[in-house]
Design goal:
- There is one protein chain.
- By secondary structure, this protein is α/β, with parallel strands linked by helices.
- It is 38% helix and 20% strand.
- It has 15 helices and 14 strands.
- An eight-stranded mixed beta sheet has the order 5-4-3-2-1-6-8-7, sandwiched between helices. Strands 11-10-9-12-14-13 form a six-stranded mixed beta sheet, sandwiched between helices.
- Helix 6 packs across helix 15, helix 10 packs across helix 11 and helix 11 packs across helix 13.
- The longest helix is centred in the last third of the chain and has 25 residues.
- The radius of gyration is 22 Å and the shape is globular.
Length: 405
């Protein structure tokens, strides 16, 4: 068992690395940062120490070419070392890596060895935009500290508890099995954290609470969580299924794809780009930022109003569906950028659902706050909560628990 208590959390994207250093003795953040535009001449690193003497200096920024992820993580290590919190610190217990897709093989946080890394690499076809960058981040971090436990925490893992009849698509079973086609779900670290935090907000054991979690950011997903266990979620094989999102269509008749190919003459790659990058709010009104959509709708812009109404309608459908799946709902929790900050979205999503026990306290709902809070009346049958997500803390928590067992 290690006595070290720090965990470095890495979220490696195709051209960026987000990172946080946390002390699990008290779940505090010691440093946060971002490297972006990796591989360009105008790369940028922003580093902010949050503890110790270095914290008084505030954020540090630097610009200039950062050639690749190896150079990016070396730069991160140098910034941490300058604050006395380098990767060689004996207080560092593990590096926790966000990995988007774990397939059916990885349903829990996993210490990374050569075999695990090879299996993560084999899942790239299921997440071609994300897993390659996740793999690169792991490889570089392992090279920097070969002796340090590296832990993969998977976006899909929390949803692995879905019953088989929920996870299966109703297509030919042999074809589905051959190509690993099933519903995996994403944003799992957020749904796990928020479902537990909602139970804590209600002052009840997580095992006793049924909650619908609405993770509403540029990407958006819903989950039905019974007693801390996910039984349904809106995203599927990929993050495209489910809610209307910033640039993703969400649920769609599959025949639309055939129609676009046969009648529209679009290639598979063009259709992929259309549905993932040019649809959702962006496709309906030209803006994928909910703040802009709300502003324009408030000024009478009809396309923005249409986009907002479509977004909210899909939310209501999922709230109602998941109420049916759970049978008893104790809370609906809004989280992520839109869920935490757009009171108009919360108001519209709950409007008309009083028969399901969902009502808001308008004054409480209108308050901006960084903390977890209830925005429903005290006597409401179903609590409506705003719970800020903390995916980095969740990754650190899972990684630290694994290496200290």
């Amino acid at each position: 068992m290690t006595t070290a208590s720090r965990v470095l959390v890495l979220n490696s994207g195709s051209s960026s690395v987000k990172y946080q250093l946390l002390d699990m003795a008290d779940s505090s953040r010691l440093a946060v940062g971002l490297v972006e535009r990796i591989g360009e001449q105008a790369s940028r690193l922003v580093h902010e120490p949050l503890a110790g003497p270095a914290a008084a200096g505030g954020k540090r920024e630097r610009s200039g070419a950062i050639a690749d992820h190896e150079a990016a993580l070396a730069a991160v290590a140098a910034e941490l070392a300058a604050d006395g919190m380098g990767l060689d610190s004996p207080e560092l217990a593990a590096v926790g890596h966000r990995v988007v897709h774990g397939g059916t093989r990885f349903t829990a946080p996993t210490v990374i060895d050569d075999e695990v890394l090879a299996e993560i690499r084999s899942l790239i076809p299921l997440a071609p935009l994300h897993n390659p960058a996740n793999v690169t981040g792991i490889e570089v971090a392992r090279a920097l500290r070969a002796d340090l436990p590296q832990v993969a925490v998977f976006d899909t893992a929390f949803h692995a508890t879905m019953p088989e009849h929920v996870a299966r698509y109703a297509i030919d079973a042999a074809t589905a099995d051959k190509h690993s086609i099933r519903r995996y779900g994403f944003h799992g670290t957020s749904h796990a954290y928020v479902s537990r935090a909602t139970a804590a907000l209600l002052g009840r054991p997580v095992e006793d609470v049924n909650v619908i979690v609405l993770h509403l950011g540029n990407g958006a997903s819903a989950s039905a969580v019974r007693g801390g266990v996910c039984v349904e979620t809106s995203m599927g094989l990929t993050p495209l299924e489910g809610l209307v999102m910033g640039t993703r269509s969400g649920d769609l008749d599959p025949a639309v794809v055939f129609h676009l190919a046969r009648v529209g003459g679009l290639s598979v790659d063009e259709i992929d780009s259309l549905l993932n990058k040019k649809s959702g709010l962006l496709g309906l009104c030209g803006d994928n930022d909910m703040r802009e959509v709300l502003r324009r709708a408030g000024e009478g812009d009809e396309s923005a109003r249409l986009a907002f109404d479509a977004y909210v309608h899909r939310l209501k459908k999922y709230i109602g569906a998941y109420a049916a799946v759970l049978g008893r709902v104790d809370a609906v929790a809004f989280t992520a950028g839109v869920g935490e900050n757009a009171h108009q979205v919360r108001e519209a999503a709950v409007d008309g659902l009083a028969e399901l026990g969902l009502v808001l306290d308008p004054a409480a709902n209108a308050v901006r706050s960084g903390g977890a809070r209830l925005v429903s009346p005290r006597d409401a049958r179903v609590a409506v909560a705003v719970v800020p997500t903390d995916e980095e803390l969740e990754i650190a928590t899972q990684a630290y628990a694994l290496v200290t067992q």
